[in-house]
């Protein structure tokens, strides 16, 4: 069974509370999603390997640590996942970016794939799939399927708000994919929206309806 991590860092919790509020406008919503994504990148990269490197300070030679050159990829699920990319890239600028386009059919709630473009060496990379919302889990499961079909094996799912139903569905479909979220909410309403959630993340990020 994959691991679920709920980030309880006070800054992440505080910022998540701001974007949940219905009166938070698009500009602030986008800025804060960006900030939370940076904080989440800091947490999910905690286990990256480091190696010794010999350097010279203005005072002396010394052996210090540097990242061991692990290849990373950030893969947003379009559209809303795009809102998390810049914030993560601030901390891991060498990561490559893949894109997976997917939307939920509003009647059936089933995801529909419309675009996949990934780094060529995706099978060698640690992949962070990013999407603010994990609701039924259909979009994340299909995105992870698309990645595995193209050779990715080391995948983590990073989301701002998750419903227990979505977590269970992803864990059942992809037991090797650890899930990270800032908020584990109550559940889903009859329209497949997360309760209390934050509404439609794509619309709130991009000012659409
Ligand atoms: C939202 C969200 C996820 C998906 C979650 O995208 O960004 O991708 O719904 O729902 P699920 O877990 O039930 O699949 P949406 O389909 O609204 O598309 P958008 O990002 O283009 O707004
Ligand atoms: N997609 C969203 O953007 N919000 C939800 O609550 C569920 C799916």
UniProtKB/TrEMBL annotation:
- Which part of the chain is the Phosphoribosyltransferase domain? 6-208
Q: Provide the protein name.
A: Uracil phosphoribosyltransferase
Example GO biological process:
UMP salvage
Q: What class of enzyme is it?
A: transferase
Q: Any inhibitors or activators noted?
A: Allosterically activated by GTP.
Copy out the cofactor comment: Binds 1 Mg(2+) ion per subunit. The magnesium is bound as Mg-PRPP.
User: What GO MF annotations does this protein's record show?
Assistant: GTP binding; magnesium ion binding; uracil phosphoribosyltransferase activity
Keyword GTP-binding attributed: yes
Gene that encodes the chain: upp
Species of origin reads Weissella oryzae (strain DSM 25784 / JCM 18191 / LMG 30913 / SG25)
Specify one Pfam family. UPRTase
> NCBIfam families, alphabetically?
PRK00129.1, upp
Print the keywords alphabetically.
Allosteric enzyme, Glycosyltransferase, GTP-binding, Magnesium, Nucleotide-binding, Transferase
**Record's superkingdom?**
Bacteria
Its function, per the record, reads:
Catalyzes the conversion of uracil and 5-phospho-alpha-D-ribose 1-diphosphate (PRPP) to UMP and diphosphate.
What does the entry list under GO cellular component? cytoplasm
What are the required cofactors?
Mg(2+)
> What pathway annotation does it carry?
Pyrimidine metabolism; UMP biosynthesis via salvage pathway; UMP from uracil: step 1/1
Q: What are the EC numbers?
A: 2.4.2.9
Q: Where does 5-phospho-alpha-D-ribose 1-diphosphate bind?
A: 79, 104, 131-139, 200
Family from the record: Belongs to the UPRTase family.
Reaction catalysis annotation: UMP + diphosphate = 5-phospho-alpha-D-ribose 1-diphosphate + uracil
Q: Which SUPFAM superfamilies match?
A: PRTase-like
**Where along this sequence does the record place binding of uracil?**
194, 199-201
């Amino acid at each position: 069974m994959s691991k679920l991590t709920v980030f309880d860092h006070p800054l992440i919790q505080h910022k998540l509370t701001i974007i949940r509020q219905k009166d938070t406008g698009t500009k602030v919503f986008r800025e804060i999603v960006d900030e939370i994504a940076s904080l989440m990148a800091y947490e999910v990269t905690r286990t990256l390997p480091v190696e010794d490197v010999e350097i010279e300070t203005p005072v002396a030679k010394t052996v210090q640590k540097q990242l061991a050159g692990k290849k990373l990829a950030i893969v947003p699920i379009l559209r809303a996942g795009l809102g998390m990319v810049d914030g993560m890239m601030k901390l891991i600028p060498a990561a490559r970016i893949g894109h997976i386009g997917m939307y939920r059919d509003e009647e059936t709630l089933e995801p529909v794939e419309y675009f996949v473009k990934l780094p060529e060496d995706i099978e060698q990379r640690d992949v962070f799939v990013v999407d603010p919302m994990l609701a039924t889990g259909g979009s994340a499961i299909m995105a992870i399927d698309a990645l595995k079909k193209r050779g990715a094996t080391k995948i983590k799912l990073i989301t701002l708000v998750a419903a227990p139903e979505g977590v269970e569905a992803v864990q059942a479909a992809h037991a090797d994919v650890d899930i990270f979220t800032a908020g584990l909410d109550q559940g889903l309403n009859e329209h497949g929206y997360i309760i209390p959630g934050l509404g439609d993340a794509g619309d709130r990020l991009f000012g659409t309806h």
